[in-house]
Amino acid sequence: MEKITIDYTAVATGKGGRNGSVKTDDGKLDFPVDMPKEIGGAGKHTNPEQLFAAGYAACFGGALASVAKGKDVSNAEITVKASIGKSDKGGFGLAAAIEVKIPGMDKSEAQQLVDAAHQACPYSKATRGNIEVTAKAI
Fold it and tell me: β-pairing, 132-137 with 92-101?
């Protein structure tokens, strides 16, 4: 297991599970959550999968900028599709598909940066070997 020296800790508290609310200790986030309609919920509010996708997209963008080494990736668009479904091992599981569009860059060069970012991104490190994750330049 990789050990880290902690520089920052985010703190969030959830109440009511998937049909409740989440709130950060600094108050910057404070909102209801519920299950998507596709899995039996009301679908009126955001859900854990959307929050995971948003965090992963932002983190992956930071990793992409870090590995770019002078190449312009400032207009890159990172889309993360976070999925939930029944696991072949029982219960439910997650999967993620990362799609990266880097305007003005050759697709093979972009894929090399995407591959490097996927190795460096803390979210990618945390999910590696735990859930199916694909990362591709589009």
Answer: parallel
- Do both 72 and 99 map to the same domain? yes
The whole domain housing 4 covers: 1-46
Burial label for 127, CB within 10 Å (0-12, 13-18, 19+), is middle
Element housing 32 (H / E): strand 30-32
Give the CATH number of the domain where residue 12 resides.
Answer: 2.20.25.10
pLDDT by residue, tens only, the chain of 138 residues: 889 999 999 999 999 999 999 999 999 999 999 999 999 999 999 999 999 999 999 999 999 999 999 999 999 999 999 999 999 999 999 999 999 999 999 999 999 999 999 999 999 999 999 999 999 999
CA distance 72 to 113: 11
Indicate the residue type of 4: I
- Tokens 């770019």 belong to which residue? 68
